[in-house]
Specification:
Elements lengths: L1 H17 L5 E11 L2 E12 L17 E2 L2 E7 L3 E2 L22 E4 L5 E2 L2 E5 L5 E5 L1 H4 L10 E3 L13 E11 L2 E8 L27 E6 L3 E17 L2 E11 L20 E3 L6 E8 L9 E6 H8 L1 E2 L36 H7 L14 H7 L4 H5 L5 H9 L2 E5 L4 E6 L7 E5 L4
């Protein structure tokens, strides 16, 4: 017990000391790797966007070899939400009745992700779909009441035929990337996971070395080992968000069979213990590296997500409904997330686009203007200026239905998918 407390204190010190650094993308407690091979030693780990040789690092920025006697290891990792849209297993991307976890789902302006679980609202008992916020509320201006489709939009879901739920609550913060949508009448529901028929009715925290499995839209049922537990910085569009959770790797870390733990479209899948059938986490991020040994997945803690969204894995009796004033208050002892750096200074995107002639209103098709969408995504003049050099920013805009192209005259042309919104604008930046 004393050793565990020492490691936990060292972890919290590392968060406070290094979490504010731009290059740090995670701090966790996990296994030490040497020459690409996972060992059995448990260490404190600091994740960096790019791991450099000590001789190339400013001495003032070098990380210590240990904290309070706990060894510190540096690993490379860059994290973004699992994207949506690659080809899924056929049965999971079709319209299904009953609806159940493991199937394709999306916001009506989104692409496709995975139903993680059927849960019950603790305020009124309503059955709801649980998935990621970036799945159920992917559109920049998503709000409560928006239509949710099964199958997801890119899997053929249609607003006139396939609306199965209405967006109810969402959260993107230290506790996770999650949202719920209240099921509407029209289709039956089944709470067992598609493909494994496992029923998840209780939760526990993931532990280092745990075997975990998930049922996702794209890769189906896969399993891996919990490789680290801590806090990870994830790039959402134009900002970084720290999220507490755990990292998974393949059971054989070298991954000789090139197993895909997850792929685009698995966002929102529920990770669980296949032996005890306890829910562990909600999948929200993975990798795009083609190297087998680079395979990983990130999940936020399931119990934290359920508490934040006020839902339960089992039906809620009327006498147990949470009324006004009974909503749980966050524990003041919880450590705060490291402060994110302020956004680049400059005019707002709305100002920039109005000056460039972006439309403020037009005849149908109705929808948000270009300025609305990009402002909601957090863009400003500086981030736009760097779009042609920043793949992450460009990819984030594409996720919002935008195409971006640099022109020979130095201008930047941004065009919206006419099916999602309206507007086309070319922006020219002054030299320097």
């Amino acid at each position: 017990m004393a050793e565990t407390e020492t490691v936990q204190r060292a972890y919290e010190k590392a968060l406070r000391a290094f979490g504010h650094r731009a290059e740090v993308t995670g701090v966790d407690i996990g296994y030490k790797y040497k020459d690409g091979r996972r060992g059995e030693q448990v260490v404190l780990r600091v994740h960096l966007r790019e791991k450099l040789a000590p001789g190339l690092v400013d001495p003032a920025q070098l990380l210590p070899a240990e904290i309070d006697g706990v060894p510190l290891d540096v690993i490379q990792g860059s994290y973004t939400p699992s994207g949506n849209g690659v080809l899924a297993l056929a049965a999971r991307r079709h319209r299904r009745d009953p609806v159940q976890p493991g199937l394709s789902i999306s916001h009506h302006l989104g692409t496709a992700g995975t139903i993680g679980a059927i849960v019950y609202d603790r305020t009124d008992g309503a059955p709801c779909i649980l998935s990621n916020k970036h799945v159920l509320a992917e559109a920049a201006l998503a709000e409560a009441g928006d239509q949710i489709l099964q199958p997801g939009r890119i899997d053929g879901g249609r607003r006139d035929l396939d609306v199965i739920a209405r967006l109810r609550r969402m959260h993107l913060g230290i506790k996770g990337d999650a949202a719920i949508a209240a099921l509407t009448q029209g289709r039956q529901m089944r709470t067992a996971l598609y493909g494994s028929d496992i029923q998840i009715q209780r939760t526990r925290r993931a532990r280092l070395g745990d075997l975990a499995a998930k049922s996702g839209r794209t890769t189906g049922v896969t399993d891996g080992r919990v490789d680290g537990v801590g806090r990870f910085k994830v790039r959402y569009g134009f900002h970084d968000q720290w999220i507490e959770g755990f990292k998974l790797r393949t059971q054989d870390h070298a991954n000789p069979g090139n197993l895909e733990l997850t792929r685009h479209g698995d966002s929102g899948a529920l990770w669980y213990d296949p032996v005890t059938q306890e829910g562990l986490g909600l999948h929200f991020a993975g990798e795009d590296d083609s190297a087998p040994a680079a395979e990983f997945a990130l999940a936020c803690h399931l119990d934290a997500v359920l508490d934040e969204l006020l839902v339960s894995l089992t039906p809620v009796a009327p006498e147990d409904f949470i009324g006004p004033g009974e909503v749980p208050v966050p524990d003041p002892a919880d450590p705060p997330a490291p402060a994110a750096p302020p956004p680049p200074a400059g005019p707002t995107l709305a100002d920039l686009l109005r000056g460039a002639g972006a439309p403020e209103a037009s005849d149908p098709p109705a929808g948000p203007t270009l300025a609305d969408l990009l402002s909601a995504a957090g863009a400003n003049a500086e981030t736009l200026r760097n779009l042609d050099r920043d793949d992450t920013c460009a990819a984030a805009l594409r996720e919002h239905g935008l195409s971006v192209a640099s022109r020979a005259d130095g201008s930047l042309e941004i065009e919206l998918d006419p099916g999602r919104a309206r507007g086309k604008v070319r922006i020219t930046f002054e030299p320097g």
